[in-house]
Amino acid sequence: MRIVLVGPPGAGKGTQAAYLAQNLEIPHISTGDLFRANISQGTPLGVQAKSYMDAGNLVPDEVTIGMAEDRLEQPDATGGFLLDGFPRNLKQAEALDVYLKAKGIVLDAVLDLEVPEDEVVKRIAGRRICRSNSAHVFHVEYKKPAAEGVCDTCGGELYQRDDDHEDTVRKRLEVYHSETEPIIDYYKAQDLVVTIPALGKVEEVTQRAMNALGRGES
Prior knowledge:
The chain is of the alpha/beta class. It has helices spanning 13-24, 31-41, 44-54, 61-72, 90-103, 117-125, 166-180, 182-188, 202-212; strands spanning 2-6, 28-30, 81-84, 109-114, 127-130, 137-139, 158-159, 193-197.
């Protein structure tokens, strides 16, 4: 299957993408991984991206599009893929369409993870990260540590990242509404969008998505 996954920050896209890609046996292609791979490997596109990032500037769409197209050329993506974080605006969506059409490939679905805005703010603003190991993540309501401010796993200090503060989260949501949300209407016009309620346990959301794709348990 060939799928695009969209949704606001805090909707659980990364988590759902990993589970769905595993269940569907297709590669999970995220924008973050594309950037990290290209930069670490020193590819021409990675060098370009790093120069913009080092200068504190946004990476142009052309660079991101180029990275995505290169990744889709890899052998493991020939049988399907799940795109997470790309496309993030109309220009990227249109470029992806041009690329896929040239290859004779069609998308199967665009999964839109739907989460109320107040829940998004609560999820992100309540997150606490371990200073010793950023993989250790807690939440003031959903995953409380045994001792406040202390990581259960390694005893490190828990803190709130600057971009997890409520005012920053709301600004990120404004960017999502203005830049990324329009691609949902773009894909609705192609009858590709499937809206998935993303509240509830991770496995429940995954099952809803699998059912919507016709790959649920019988």
